[in-house]
Design brief:
The protein is mostly helical and about 400 residues long. It is about 70% helix and about 0% strand. It is built from 20 helices and no strands.
């Protein structure tokens, strides 16, 4: 596992193959497969070991705080110490684990359930009930803030985040009831654009789309169905109904077409999100409307859902950068100055990252449980979670 840690740390999970891993470890491939189910199994075992040690320390530290706020603060301070002492290990858990894509769903769900249970225990042991959704949002938000600090190359920022995150966690105390925010959802007008799920080699696609556009949609479909690691030019050409030569006339690499697809799909989602926000009478209603619109969009756009929540972060450095940019764009859209809306003070970087990360994780969990189509039903509670830190007048 030491060889795996070094290889992923230097090159990223996607660049590690069984032959190279065996060479680095000084063992045969037969020996490697005798201990692990390939590269993926070795990486998951490494993540389990790192995570379990850290989770135990955080749980122990949280017992020394006074009240739910003090216990959350103590647990987060312990996490900051762990990140400062071993930033490479923290990077593997908080950042590089995303390279597993859909294959990492089981591991991430296990890890986050452990932390969600700890958060719930902290509050309930002090007689302060908290909903399961709120615990998931808190864990997802803290995870994302750590991710951002490590991606920025500033592990020391995790400690600076602690007071904001502890106060944010306390804002989710709701007396044990699932609060909801009423959502006035203005759905988008039906589009005449050929849907992204439609076969790009169909007769309709050949009429409505250029060869370049058909290739872009083929890439999006293939990555959503099979993952980034399985993408190849022949597969793309077959799906698009074009030749390999045509592909290289339009793109320099397979990732270039994927970047264009990701940008187009994200822009469509963001446009819907912003329109819903701007259509409301005040900032709080705008946030609720935007969250509702996003849930509705994801529920009806399976390719965007799979790419944005699973395959995008697994697509190497390009994917991680676009993943960050996507969340930043959604947070920026909710800033008071973005739409001239009446609102409380803007959330700031740490709180904005926490809200975005918590919302993203709650939606990712629903998608992983195959509940994409029911996301609009979750929207009122997600909106309440997003607005929890703010005093609003509705």
């Amino acid at each position: 596992m030491m060889a795996m840690a070094g290889a992923v740390g230097r090159h990223g999970y996607g660049a590690v193959h069984s032959r190279r891993l065996a060479e680095l470890a000084g063992v045969s491939k037969t020996t490697l497969y005798g201990h692990f189910e390939g590269v993926e199994g070795c990486f998951v075992a490494l993540l389990d070991e790192l995570f379990e040690r850290a989770a135990e320390r955080v749980a122990e530290a949280s017992e020394w705080g006074a009240g739910p706020g003090g216990r959350m603060q103590a647990g987060l301070e312990s996490l900051a110490s762990i990140v400062e002492a071993n930033p490479a290990g923290a990077h593997l858990v908080l950042v590089d684990s995303l390279g597993l894509g859909s294959a990492g769903t089981g591991w991430r769900d296990r890890a986050e359930r452990r932390l969600e249970k700890l958060v719930s225990e902290i509050f309930r042991s002090e007689g302060v009930p908290i909903s399961g959704l709120s615990a998931r949002v808190i864990v997802g938000g803290a995870w994302h803030c750590g991710f951002r600090a490590l991606r920025d190359g500033r592990p020391e920022d995790v400690r600076r985040q602690v007071p904001v995150l502890a106060a944010w966690a306390l804002s989710h105390c709701n007396g044990g009831t699932e609060q909801e925010v009423a959502i006035s959802l203005r759905t988008a007008e039906p589009s005449e654009e050929l849907g992204w799920q439609k076969p790009p080699s169909s007769a309709a696609a050949r009429i409505d789309l250029t060869q370049r556009e058909r290739i872009v949609r083929a890439v999006a479909q293939l990555v959503a169905e099979q993952g980034h690691g399985e993408l190849s030019i022949p597969k793309i050409s077959a799906r698009a109904g074009t030749s390999n030569a045509t592909y290289y006339e339009n793109f320099r690499s397979k990732d270039e077409a994927l970047e264009i697809a990701l940008d187009a799909l994200t822009e469509r989602a963001l446009r819907t999100f912003v329109a819903a926000f701007e259509a409301q009478r005040n900032w709080a209603s705008g946030v609720a409307g935007a969250v509702g619109s996003l849930c509705h969009h994801i529920a009806t756009e399976p390719i965007f859902a799979q790419l944005a929540f699973f395959e995008l972060p697994a697509s190497g450095q390009m994917g991680l950068a676009r993943f960050e940019a996507m969340l930043d764009a959604f947070v920026a859209a909710l800033e008071p100055k973005a739409a001239g809306a009446r609102s409380p003070q803007g959330p700031g970087r740490v709180l904005g990252d926490a809200i975005a990360g918590g919302t993203w994780e709650a939606i990712r969990h629903e998608l992983a449980q195959d509940r994409r189509e029911s996301l609009p039903e979750l929207a009122p509670r997600l909106a309440a979670a997003a607005l929890a830190p703010f005093e609003t007048d509705g």
